[in-house]
Amino acid sequence: MPLSLELRHFRLLVALESHQSLTRAAASLSLTQPAASHQLREMDRRIGTPVVQRVKGKYRFTPIGERLLGTAKVIENALSQAESDVLNYRKGVSHIVRVGSHAYGCYQWLPAFMRRFQDQENDVDTEIVGSLTSLSHQAVASGEIDVALTAGRLNHNRLTAFPLFEDELVGILPPDHPLAGKEWLEAEDFLPQPFISYGIQPERGFEHDLLFSPANVALHKIIKAGVTEAVVELVRSGFGLGILSQWAVRGHLKNDTLVAKRLSKNGIFVTWQALIRQEESESSVVYHFAQSLQEWCRDGSFDAVIAGHAPPPGR
Fold first, then answer.
1. Which residue range or ranges hold the HTH lysR-type domain (predicted)?
2. Biggest alpha carbon distance in the chain?
3. 115-170: per-residue pLDDT in tens?
4. What is the CATH code of the structural domain delimited by 166-270?
């Protein structure tokens, strides 16, 4: 069956979402605004339904448009990766390992391991993919990234998990918040105010699975912050409460403008892990990366970096 849409159509959808303006989207693709409008009408005609709608002067994706936009992002990412691979190959890099996390940047500790790994593997380059188009396990399964750093239970027969370390999830709030005097927080404590989160779609294995769902608590309002630093600053400024992994928030507790509280009396702990595709053989670079990361976390290097100390010599 011949395809109805072409690459130019998918690129226009990505540009339209990025620029929130058809004129600016067209300019980014070296098109005129009438040409971009024609492409949108052409898409509607070819698939038989609108992909975007004008609402109060702004473009909004229809459900069909959202579906196509998701595919467009995957296509654009794959093309970008292919071009990057070719350029790196010309520079003498034979393998690239792409690492990502839907919820956490992992920038506090991941670069320390990447430095050691690349010292050992001169022809291997590593990239941190900061804006995944899907949840971590989905991004690995689809090939968007090679290694996902995430936590929680794994129920996916296409992935292999390498346990890395255990950490506690904690609630964060300003020191003058009425709940700051509590010894621990329950799921119901998060109901009266907005919840500051990385995104609207929850990552599996974190607070939604382990705290809110078991207590049958549905959050009233979620504010999407995108990155750890934004979550912290919005909570500090009194916009709501948040939940972070303890390693991610530790450095933000030093100036007494933020407090962290245990979740439930016994606390909620998660096991962080590296996920790779099951078809990766034990001799593959991706498998070696995940295995080396596991060893690095277990030999004390991870704890040293999180504590603010340089890893011991030779690590």
1. 5-62
2. 64
3. 888 888 777 788 887 666 567 777 888 778 899 888 866 666 789 999 999 989 99
4. 3.40.190.10
